[in-house]
Amino acid sequence: MFRRRRQARPTSIFEHISAHVPADGPGLREGGDVLPDDGSGTMWAPGAQDGVLLYHWGGSAEPRELERLCEALAAAVRGRSGHDALVETVRGMRVISLVDDLLGWVRGSGLDPEDVYRLAYRLATEARDREAVKLGIALLGLYSADHHRDELMTLGRHDEFTIFAMVALANREGDVEADLWDLARNVTGWGRIHVVERLADTGDPLIRDWILREGFRNDVMDQYLAGAAATSGDLAGRLAAAPDDDLLIAASDLFDVLCEDGGPVEGISGYEDGERAAGLFLGHMATRADDLRHYFAVRSLQTYATEHWPHLADRCAEILQRPLWADLARLGLASTDEAEFYRASRACRMLGVPTLQAHLNRVRDEPYDPRHWHSSMQEADTGTLSQVLDLATDLLPLTLIATGPAEEDGFGPDFAPHRCLDAFLPKLGEWPGQGWPIVAAGLASPVVRNRNMAIRTLAAWDESAWPAQARDAVTAALAREPDADVRERLRLLLEGRPVE
C-alpha cells in the first residue's frame, strides 16, 4: 500500500524573503530578489514599476478599479467571500496607485478593525502574489507598527515592498528614524530612493552624514537622490571645512550627476548652494585631484559652468589639462576591479585614449558580457572591425542562439548569449555585408528582439550588399515566424520596402 506524498505548501513571499535574509550584512542572499510570483523573466527590477509610476506618471486611482477592490476587501473582511477571492481581485492591479484612496475608504467604512487587522496580517505574511502583499502591508499601516515591526522590517528588505513597509513603520511610537535608516542601509534600489527621501529632513547628524557620503548611491540612478544628499548633508558647508578624501569622492560623484541635463529630477540648478559648493570643491581639486572620479566631476562642472558660472569654467579647464588624467586612465584599464576598469574606460573615451584591445581582452574572459562587446563595436573602425567580428564568431555560440523563432523576451541567465547580439546588430547596419553569421543567428533567434534587430540591420544594407544566402534565409524566416509584427517586417524586407 502506497501513501500519497504530501504536496509541499507553496512558499509565501514573506517566507521567501525571510529565508534569504543574510545572517549579517545588507541586501538579500542570492536568489532573494526573484519572488515566487515572478515568471521566467521580467523587464522590471524590484520596485521599478511602482517607482516609475510615482515619479513619472503621478499614479492615481482609477475609480472603477478602486470600487472593485473596496467591494472585494469588504466581502473578505465580513466573511462573505474567501481570502482567495480578494487576492484574485488585486492581482494585476497597481496597489501603489490605489492605496491612499483605499485607506481613506477603510477608515470610514465601519469595518471591524480587528477583522481588518487579521486579514491584513494574513495577506502580508501568507500571500504569494506581490500586489496582495502590498495591500496587506498598506492595511497594517492603519495600526501601530509595534505589533508587527519585525515583519515589516523583513518585507522592507526587498525593494518591491520597501515603500509600503516604510509608510507602515511610521505608525509607531518611539524612534522610527532608526528603523528607517536600518531599512535604507539594507536596500540598494528603488527602496533606498524612497526611504532616503523620507529621511532627508532628519535632524540626526549621523544620518545626514551617511546620506551625503553613501546614502545617495543606488542601483537605479544616483540622480534621484543627489540633490537631496547635497541639501540634507550640507555639501557646501562640509566642503568649506576640511573634507577628508572619502568625502571628496562622494562630492565628486554628486557633482558628476547633479550637472547632467535632462535627468529624472532637478539637478544642480535646484541646489541653492550649488555655485558656492562648486567653487569650494574646485579649490580642493587645485591641490588634491588624483582620482578619475575627481576628473569626471570637474568635467561635468565645466560643461555646466560654461553656460551658468563662466568664472568657474576656466578653473575647471586648468584642472582638466593636467597629463595626470590620461596616465590614470591607462593604468585603470589594467585593473582587475570592475568598477575601476569602467571608470578608466569612460575616461579614455573622453580623453581619446584607445580602449579596444582592453575590451577584447575582457571578452576573452567574459564572452557573455554584452558591455565589453558593445564598447568594442563602438570603437571598431575599418581596420579593426574584422578582428572584433572574428572573435565574436569564435566565442559566441551562434548555432545555439539560432534555434528557431519563438516569442521569448530574452531575459534570464539562459539568454546571456542572445543579449550579446544587442551589441552587434544595430551597429552592423553601418557596415553593409559585414558580420553575416551574427545577423543570420539573430534572424533565427527565439528572442523577438534579436529578430527585429536583424531585420533592421538587413534593411539598412542595400540588397546588393546582402550575402548570397541572405534572401533565402529571410524567406525561410518568414515561413516559420510566429509573431505577426515580425512577419510583416520580414515581408516588407523581402519586398524592398521601408521597415519600421
Walkthrough of the structure:
It comes from Actinomadura fulvescens. This is HEAT repeat domain-containing protein. The protein has three domains: 10-22 and 47-199, no CATH class; 202-322; 354-494, no CATH class. By secondary structure, the protein is mainly α. It has helices spanning 13-19, 48-57, 63-77, 83-90, 95-107, 113-126, 130-140, 149-155, 162-169, 176-185, 190-199, 205-215, 223-232, 235-240, 245-258, 274-288, 292-308, 310-320, 324-332, 338-351, 356-365, 370-379, 385-395, 398-401, 416-428, 436-443, 448-460, 470-480, 484-494.
Radius of gyration: 27 Å
Name the poorly predicted regions: 1-7
Structural class by helix and strand composition: mainly alpha
The largest sheet, given as strand count, sense and whether it forms a barrel, is: none
How would the global form be characterised?
flat
The first-to-last residue Cα distance is: 65 Å
Helix percentage: 55-70%
Domain module tally: 3
Order of helices and strands: HHHHHHHHHHHHHHHHHHHHHHHHHHHHH
Mean pLDDT metric: 93
Strand content: under 5%
Q: Count all strands and give the number.
A: 0
